[in-house]
Design brief:
This protein has 207 residues and is an all-beta fold. 0% of the residues lie in helices and 50% in strands. The protein contains no helices and 19 strands.
Length: 207
Amino acid sequence: ATPGPTAWRGKLSTSGRYLVSMHCVSGAPLPDHQVFVRDLQRPDTPIITASGCRWFDFSCGERFIAYSTGRRSIEICSLESGQIVKQIPLDYFARRLQWSGEGPQIAVIADGGPEVEIWDVAGEPKCIARYEISGSAFALGWRSEPFALAVGTVQGSVLWWQDDLSSTPKRLPLHSNNVIWLHFHPHRELLFSNAWDGTARIIDPNS
């Protein structure tokens, strides 16, 4: 099913049970963009509908989904009940967010700003790490075990942290334009990236 005008981003959960899709009206401002989450065991009616979203991700174990809002916050919803269970207050609009592979942590980058943060949401949400880059963040990739976090910038470089956000990141000049996607290989020390300059790269950040 395809509710709303135009579907332009989507993700299927690892188990294949849940589908999240983002829909927008051409030329509409961000608050008019909507996210629909469907349980494919009963797909006719969305279990979650939200407006003003920019990005989303399923938690490990697929108990929750987190999505950014047009109100400078991230909402965390239960996939079982469809209800909001937690909210993360931000000082900025979030461009990207990603759950950790293990544990109740979410990495966030600002939309057009320098902020890179990691939030622990096991209890009351709290920011446990923060870094401000020089430039504007555009893409995000991370894993928690072992820790590795990469942020792509509009200038085309990728910042890579190997230990934690308190260290100085390594700057990798991989592209000549906006880095739009980053992903760590789940089992090897490889980082995948692609950008608006029309190139895609697979690198070992340690080399």
